[in-house]
Amino acid sequence: MKVGLIGLGKMGLNLGQNLMDHNHSVVAFDLNTAAVEDMKSKGAEGAASIKELVSKLETPRIVWIMVPHSVVDSVLDELKPLLSKGDIVIEAGNSHYKESIERYNQMKEFGVSYLDVGTSGGMEGARNGACYMVGGDQEAWDIVEPIFKDTAVENGYLYAGKSGSGHFLKMVHNGVEYGFMAAIGEGFEVLEKSDFDFDYEKVARVWNNGSVIRSWLMELTEKAFAKDANLDEIKGIMQSSGEGKWTVETALDLQTATPVIALSLLMRYRSLENDTFTGKVVAALRNEFGGHAVVKN
Amino acid sequence: MKVGLIGLGKMGLNLGQNLMDHNHSVVAFDLNTAAVEDMKSKGAEGAASIKELVSKLETPRIVWIMVPHSVVDSVLDELKPLLSKGDIVIEAGNSHYKESIERYNQMKEFGVSYLDVGTSGGMEGARNGACYMVGGDQEAWDIVEPIFKDTAVENGYLYAGKSGSGHFLKMVHNGVEYGFMAAIGEGFEVLEKSDFDFDYEKVARVWNNGSVIRSWLMELTEKAFAKDANLDEIKGIMQSSGEGKWTVETALDLQTATPVIALSLLMRYRSLENDTFTGKVVAALRNEFGGHAVVKN
Amino acid sequence: MKVGLIGLGKMGLNLGQNLMDHNHSVVAFDLNTAAVEDMKSKGAEGAASIKELVSKLETPRIVWIMVPHSVVDSVLDELKPLLSKGDIVIEAGNSHYKESIERYNQMKEFGVSYLDVGTSGGMEGARNGACYMVGGDQEAWDIVEPIFKDTAVENGYLYAGKSGSGHFLKMVHNGVEYGFMAAIGEGFEVLEKSDFDFDYEKVARVWNNGSVIRSWLMELTEKAFAKDANLDEIKGIMQSSGEGKWTVETALDLQTATPVIALSLLMRYRSLENDTFTGKVVAALRNEFGGHAVVKN
Amino acid sequence: MKVGLIGLGKMGLNLGQNLMDHNHSVVAFDLNTAAVEDMKSKGAEGAASIKELVSKLETPRIVWIMVPHSVVDSVLDELKPLLSKGDIVIEAGNSHYKESIERYNQMKEFGVSYLDVGTSGGMEGARNGACYMVGGDQEAWDIVEPIFKDTAVENGYLYAGKSGSGHFLKMVHNGVEYGFMAAIGEGFEVLEKSDFDFDYEKVARVWNNGSVIRSWLMELTEKAFAKDANLDEIKGIMQSSGEGKWTVETALDLQTATPVIALSLLMRYRSLENDTFTGKVVAALRNEFGGHAVVKN
Q1: Chain B closest CA to D266's CA: distance in Å?
Q2: Residue B289 — very low, low, confident or very high, per pLDDT cuts 50/70/90?
Q3: Where does the 6-phosphogluconate dehydrogenase C-terminal domain lie (chains A, B, C, D) (predicted)?
Q4: How large is the ipTM?
Q5: Would you tell me which residues 1-40 of chain D have a C-beta closer than 8 angstroms to some C-beta of chain A?
Q6: Exposed/middle/buried for D122, CB within 10 Å: 0-12, 13-18, 19+?
Q7: Which CATH number fits domain B170-272: 1.20.1050.10, 3.40.50.300, 1.10.1040.10, 3.40.630.30?
Q8: Average pLDDT, chain A
Q9: Above 90 in pLDDT, residue A294?
Q10: What is the predicted pLDDT for the residue at D244?
Q11: A258 near A248, Cβ under 8 Å?
Q12: CATH class for the region spanning C2-163
């Protein structure tokens, strides 16, 4: 198939190559012209604008958007007047499922199908076999399924149902991921505080071979410790990019008790602080009622 | 009544005065002779040793121990050979209720009654009206009730039942206290992170007058902010002295879900760290799978 | 002062009487005509419509809205064409502070001042002395301060600053309240699971006299146990009316770690369920890897 | 090697076969004689008592204990007089690491080496390739390493260091496992509460192929949903067998903030209750201050 690929960042570049490995042709666009040249050197057709990209596709056009979720709307605004009834837009970034549903409805007015695709597996997955969760109209899905099948790992894609379900699944996936990562981190922190003398790389390796918690994240834990045996070189600042927060907000809306996912998120926020106002208040109160000493700033 | 008071620290000194205010006579002992002199200057009889203290009491002797829980056993070891059947030992520090039950059983072998007393209200309470939770034998309680009635605030004492129940109640009281303090702290942290410009002392005052959360701890919050409007001068390091941990351990033993008390404790531990191994692991993992930058140490 | 009072539910009726006790005159309206008659019997002027209510006020008109937050907008829609430059609207229900800011901006277009007022203290407070947290323009506040001063308990009102700050403070107040209540509940649950035999009413009383956790909520705990010694008659279903959820959502937006408030909310949601899907999944997994028996439905 | 295997339950039987598959000879004992016969039919030598078992081993004897942790001490009491200097005891059940250290010290008095071995991977692992974490003396380890190497999966064993480190690692492993399981459960609960219509087996499959959270537990999740699509047949009661609790207790002793592991445990306890006293107290309080209706029992 011929796919118009908008967005050639870390994920887009890898996906483009993956598509071409499987004999799909790619028309590539990015505001960063160097990235376009890079894709051209690997066999893609380049485009200098979204308009040119669309003009190089055949009906029904398939446009795959792989951009930060904050710029999806501006890409869609450009696309809308250029697309025709029957065209299919695939948005495979990390958008909020509610926004995806809104975009689906907007595009539907133009007769354009809109698929929301959660993509997991990181850069390596995008290159060699990703994991896709797809929401949107079944008819559009039936047309594009082959490109997902080809670029996913075996059994690594799911048409999950109506619009929004793809990004919803990916959001929750990331919520679970937060929980896994926090559990692994806490486990190693207990090891680290103990008076045993563990070799963390070896611990991650044994936990990854035959144990109940063997997992890709444990493999990555092993890799990380292989590079820096005690993680001395990095700070424990846990950034987050939104999906964990969305999961917790959604859980609140659905009145669902998700303490593990919620705490994994709150501890990320805690890690952004050197000191907390909560701590100051509690320390001050202990001083007030019990005369307990406070540590002065 | 005549009371032998062992332990003249912050709590003991105040309690001794409180007892004498209510026409009880006090025989006071502490390893710190200056404290004994201080009590003498306020009207107490002094003792140079536990032996002397015991010799100055009348049968049935009433010995009130107000020492750190780590030294209770050594005090009891000294007392055991000196006391007789019918004497009453009151241990009013922050001991673990299980230890109190063991001590009760030990003293029972000598025919000595042992009351475990949880004391709340801080130094000011000890001086002017404390809050007591008492466990042990009813017969011993009936004898000493007057001294509790006199030194407590109105309705501020409770004979809670069999041995251990006093310190158990106090332990759980402190667990609840941890939760209150954390909730107050978190509330003010949300205020502090907002883009409103609150005067925290005034907020504590209004929350303390007519609101649902009016409480002594909110009064103390107001006082703390009155001294240091934004708590700029103190660090948010939240020490703990044991009862909160015991409450959580007890909850685990009883298979009781106490997430609020547990988290108020865990966040205290978190506040003791500048950085965490959990954070390092999570940051390293995010780098491994997503290429997210880590902050270097 | 003359106040137009819209909304004569549990809170409005009590507030109306409170206003009249302090020599303010009240024009009262509610869709429920019986409630209007009730207020009239207590000395208020009645109104058969919002239009009539407005017509009975003097410039600058003071309209106090005390309705569920879901109907505030429809009340404002009716009010807008009826009010004039300089009039003051007081909204003293439990609205989200962001909505209050939007309403403030809408009313400002008409030259009408809009004060967002968080009200605490329950029905009894509304009747005899409430607690108010007020946001909005200082000039409007200066005009109406006397009616707040008169109907609040001493020190029980605070002009907190710009629009939204009143409801923000009240929201966070309720978040803290969730934490207090959960901490109290957890404490009593530990008592209840222990093998001691506590009299909960007496425990609440002693904890409320001289202890660190003495508070209005502990007074209410005592009252509740006085009515039903072991709370045998009620189910532990913890409903919630929104402010706790808003507090957590706001904390997430501000990247603030509020585990205690968050967990007190999540456990309320958990209490709405007889069984959970989380539990089913975990039980099924234990069966898969360890052969642990599951309980059949 | 020749191994005396005490304990022929689910784990022991599988391990015995695994040992024999790798040309080790097994002398088997269990109080359940049918299990001994079973092992004999598979090629093991049987023993009618621990004494007989020991008598059939060659010096240095290797005794592998695979019994519930509550009966380890009674097995050791029988073994002590029968073993000689240089013999090696392997205890591969789920004992608390502190007990293992005590047992190590006890056995050391007899000159017997004691290895504490955490075993993961479930019954299937025991049969075809387990995961072992081993603590104890290096010299003893060097002797028995071959039998661990043969019965583990590749890279599935680790000599972790001094006595206790094996069971410590296994304990923390299980703590992490609790976190993983809770995160998976919470994720599916969010899916289940949403208004999408997910096929959970397919979701587990796609999350297990190429995604960041691919893991053995996700494989088991897929299997569980394959058997019962919505887990309608089982109750969400989450039992626990101790290691998660030990992990949290250890974290408390080490002053380590492990909120995710702690909450995964507390929610297991919550799942054992139909109703909670916490809930009753909170519901009663809401009724007291706000007149909110309670649900009657």
Answers
A1: 5
A2: confident
A3: 166-293
A4: 0.96
A5: none
A6: buried
A7: 1.10.1040.10
A8: 96
A9: no
A10: 97
A11: yes
A12: alpha beta
